[in-house]
Design goal:
The chain is of the alpha/beta class. It folds into 2 domains: 2-133, Response regulator (Rossmann fold, 3-Layer(aba) Sandwich); 137-231, Arc Repressor Mutant, subunit A (Orthogonal Bundle), CATH 1.10.10. It has 8 helices and 11 strands. The longest helix has 15 residues, at 115-129. The chain is elongated, with a radius of gyration of 19 Å. Bound molecules: calcium ion. Calcium ion (CA) binds at residues 16-17, 59, 61-62.
Amino acid sequence: MKTGSNDSPRILIVEDEASLAELLAYNLSAEGYGVDVAVRGDEAELKLAESTPDLVILDWMLPAISGIEICRRLRARPETKTLPVIMLTARSEENERVRGLSVGADDYIVKPFSVPELLARVRALLRRVSPERIANRLSFGEIELDRDNRRVRRSGRDIHLGPTEFRILEYLLQKPGRIFTRAQLLDSVWGLSAEIDERTVDVHIGRLRKALSRSAETNPIRTVRGAGYGFDDRFEK
Ligand code: CA
């Protein structure tokens, strides 16, 4: 499976747990990355020999060749010596993380982790190695969001948002015009493991709307009854 346009950063996910691989692939594609998945160590080796992605998410325990071994081999080859690698480890292996970092992983995440947490690490790592490829500012119509200093403005006026409203706005701004269901917003903003009622989404959307629009201003967020929320594509004009 491969997704993404030609110029978007390409990420190889190496994970033998099918549901986790699928969840990661879905969310990374939604963020605009090109995604490829390998479910075995030897399959990952083949894909890596064929072409070098921009980042690898590498599970520790894999059939055929372990994540540790793959990482060691990547670091030994000149062309993949500096390839960004995020290792995924199960909690029981956490005390082995030093070993993971000693073979050259750039970062590691302990399972179970939240999707927003992983996406933030991916973005941070990619931005460190190729800042020009990761958008620091998102904007639509009169609204601008700056990821680095976590600032939001509408027509130059500062908008103060809570952390959850900020993440919702960041998520919606990546795909203006697209409608997201409450379940998608829950997964992407709060993370799958969060035990939160879908009505909580409505509450935060309400706060975001209120913060973004003063009395005479257009409300930029569209509600589609029974479907979800998105940036109104008429808002830009
Ligand atoms: Ca595994």
